[in-house]
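Figure caption, in words: inputs first, then the predicted bound structure.
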Amino acid sequence: MQQKVRPFEINDVQAVAQIFENVPDGWSESALRDSLSNDSIKSYVLEADGKTAAFASYLVADDAELVFVVTAENFKRKGYGGYILSETLKMLNMPCVLEVRESNIPAIKLYEKLGFELLGNRKNFYSNPRESALIYKLDL
Ligand SMILES: CC(C)(COP(=O)(O)OP(=O)(O)OC[C@H]1O[C@@H](n2cnc3c(N)ncnc32)[C@H](O)[C@@H]1OP(=O)(O)O)[C@@H](O)C(=O)NCCC(=O)NCCS
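Bound structure (coenzyme A present):
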């Protein structure tokens, strides 16, 4: 399997919007397009055998904040989520923080496998459904 991680570009918008279709709070096609003109947002795609398999996006300032990581349904549990995060964290080369719904076990397990450490939580941070956020950090 050929896989490569590269910056997200305008030609990827449709494929990534499709990945987001069944994801709660997923980005729309227009949100994805708008993100390309925001200099603080850095996004990446993982191509596996020419197909868009995963997407990751960060808000970058003094550190990086992971805004979203998502793997296409038929590519899940094959290591792509971990690969796109580890490759992009190497490229960004800065500490990374993130928030995650406390019920999102696949994401929590993924972050902990990559070495993210739990810093704390924010009660009732999310709505629809109301839920607390766990805050994780990965130092360099
Ligand atoms: C979270 C997500 C990105 C993981 O992507 P993935 O490509 O399936 O992840 P990987 O195959 O790289 O898995 C790496 C590790 O994550 C954990 N993991 C992934 N899916 C899991 C699941 N369904 N249940 C438990 N652990 C899981 C495991 O520790 C796994 O390692 P293992 O396969 O050796 O056990 C994917 O489930 C997803 O797109 N979820 C919807 C979007 C989302 O909630 N994103 C996070 C918030 S922004």
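The chain has two domains: 1-85, 95-140.
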